[in-house]
Design a protein that fits this description.
Layout (H helix, E strand, L loop, with lengths): L2 E10 L2 E11 L4 E5 L6 H9 L6 E6 L2 E2 L5 H4 L1 E5 L10 H10 L9 H14 L15 H14 L4 E5 L7 H18 L2 E5 L3 H7 L2 E6 L2 E6 L1 H6 L4 H6 L4 E8 L2 E4 L2 E6 L4 E7 L4 E3 L6 E11 L2 E8 L4 E8 L9 E6 L3 E4 L19
Parallel strand pairs: 3-8, 3-9, 6-7, 7-8
Antiparallel strand pairs: 1-2, 1-4, 4-5, 9-10, 11-12, 11-14, 12-13, 14-20, 15-19, 16-17, 16-19, 17-18
Bound molecules: adenosine-5'-triphosphate and magnesium ion.
Length: 360
C-alpha cells in the first residue's frame, strides 16, 4: 500500500511539531525516519496511524484519503519501543489479540485465530513458545512477539517506533537483519523510527532525515551518506568534521590561508569531510593540525587534530600501524569534501539550500 503525505502540518498548543511535510512511501518500501530527539518522528508515525489528526494537509493510503478512516479501518500495525505485551496472556493469545478484539461479524473463529497466530510465530522464529508468558521471554523475543502481533491483523502498513531501542547491540544487529529478511518476504510497506543511524543505513530502502519538524532529505542510504542535501544531514549522518571557510577566486581559504582546495563558488561556506576522506602525512599539503588525541575504531586509528588559533577540531583516519603522539604537527588534505553556503539572508547554515558546491 502506497502512503502519501501531502503538505501535512501539526501543531501542539500552537507549537509546530511538523511544518508542511511532503513524503511518498512506495508500496513495499522500507523507510527509516531518523533525526534528533523532538524532530517529529513519532508525531509523523502517529499521524500515519491515525492516532493524531493533521492540522493541515492530507494523508493518502493508495488513492484513499486516510483522514476519513478510523484507526481500525486504516489497518495499520504498530510496534513501539516499550510495547507492552499483555503479561497475563500467553504468547499465542498476545499474537491473536488484534483478531479476537474484532467485532463479532469480522472476527475469525477461535481455531482460525490460533492457526494464524501459530503461523506468525513460526515466521518470527518463535515456534514452540506459544504457551509461555511474556515475563518468561528475553527482550528480543518479546519484540518479535510484538511484531507478530502487529502482523496478525494483516496490516496494510507497518509502523515501528524504535522497535529495538531497548536491546543490546548484538541482539539489535540480529533482529534488524531478520526484520529486513521478513520485510523482503512479506512485502509490507514499513516505516520505522530509529536513533541508530547505522541501523537506518543498513536496513532501509530510503532514509528520511528529519530536523525541527522538517524533512531535510529523503533518499537512499548511499545518497544521504555520499550526497547529503544540507549541512545538517552531513553532520547528522556518519562521522564528519566541519570547518568554516571562504571561497575566493575558486580557491578555498581557512583563516585567510589557502588550503589548496578548489571550489566552484564564491563567499563564506562550511566545508565538510569524513575521517576516511583525508590524505594524511608529509606532503599531503594544504592543511595542518596538532595531534591532541586518538583512538582505535575497528581497523583504523582515528586521530583528533586542532587547527589554527581558533583550535578547531577535526578527525582523520590513519592506518593502525601508524602511531601519532600528541603534540605532533600533521599535514592533511581532504580527498573528498562538500561545501555548504554559510548563512546568507539570515538563514542559519544548517538551513542552507541543498546544493553541491564541490565534490573532490
Ligand atoms: N502530545 C503532545 N503534546 C504536546 N507536544 C507534543 C506532543 N507530542 C509531541 N509533542 C512535541 O512535538 C515535537 C515532536 O515530538 P516527537 O515525539 O514527534 O519527536 P521525536 O522525533 O519522536 O523525538 P524522540 O526521538 O525523542 O522520540 C516535540 O517538540 C514534542 O515536545
Ligand atoms: Mg519519538
Amino acid at each position: 500500500m502506497e502512503v502519501r503525505i501531502e503538505a501535512v502540518a501539526k501543531d501542539f498548543d500552537r507549537h509546530p511539531a511538523l511544518h508542511e511535510i511532503d513524503l511518498a512511501i512506495a508500496s513495499g518500501e522500507l523507510a527509516a525516519l531518523v533525526g534528533p530527539s523532538g524532530s517529529g518522528k513519532t508525531t509523523l508515525l502517529r499521524l500515519i496511524a491515525g492516532l493524531e489528526t493533521p492540522g493541515r494537509g492530507r494523508i493518502l493510503f493508495g488513492e484513499e484519503d486516510a483522514s476519513r478512516l478510523s484507526v481500525q479501518a486504516r489497518r495499520v500495525g504498530f510496534v513501539f519501543q516499550h510495547y507492552a505485551l499483555f503479561r497475563h496472556m500467553t504468547v499465542l493469545e498476545n499474537v491473536g489479540f488484534g483478531l479476537s478484539a474484532r467485532p463479532r461479524a469480522l472476527r475469525p473463529a477461535r481455531a482460525e485465530i490460533d492457526r494464524r497466530a501459530r503461523e506468525l510465530l513460526e515466521l518470527v522464529q518463535l515456534g514452540g513458545l506459544e504457551k509461555r508468558y511474556p515475563p518468561q521471554l528475553s527482550g528480543g523475543q518479546r519484540q518479535r512477539v510484538a511484531l507478530a502481533r502487529a502482523l496478525a491483523i494483516e496490516p496494510r502498513v507497518l509502523l515501528l517506533d524504535e522497535p529495538f531501542g531497548a536491546l543490546d547491540a548484538q541482539v539489535r544487529r540480529d533482529l534488524r537483519r531478520w526484520l529486513r529478511e521478513l520485510h523482503d518476504r512479506t512485502g509490507h510497506t514499513t516505516v520505522f523510527v530509529t536513533h541508530d543511524q547505522e541501523e537506518a543505513l543498513e536496513l532501509a530502502d530510503r532514509v528520511v532525515v528529519m530536523s525541527q519538524g522538517r524533512i531535510e532529505q529523503a533518499a537512499t542510504p548511499d545518497e544521504v551518506y555520499d550526497r547529503p542535501a544540507t549541512a545538517f544531514v552531513h553532520g547528522f549522518i556518519g562521522e564528519s568534521s566541519r570547518l568554516p571557510v571562504r571561497v575566493e577566486g575558486g580557491e578555498v581559504f581557512l583563516d585567510d590561508r589557502p588550503t589548496g582546495l578548489r571550489a566552484d563558488w564564491e563567499g563564506p561556506a562550511e566545508l565538510f569531510f569524513r575521517p576516511h576522506q583525508a590524505l594524511v602525512g608529509d606532503g599531503a599539503g594544504g592543511l595542518a593540525g596538532m595531534v591532541t588525541g586518538g583512538r582505535r575504531i575497528a581497523g583504523v586509528r582515528r586521530v583528533e587534530l586542532e587547527l589554527g588559533a581558533a583550535h578547531r577540531r577535526v578527525e582523520v583516519d590513519l592506518p593502525l600501524a601508524q602511531s601519532c603522539a600528541p603534540g605532533t604537527l600533521l599535514a592533511f588534505r581532504p580527498t573528498a569534501f562538500r561545501l555548504y553556503p554559510l548563512a546568507g539572508e539570515g538563514r542559519p547554515a544548517d538551513r542552507a539550500p541543498a546544493r553541491q558546491l564541490a565534490h573532490g
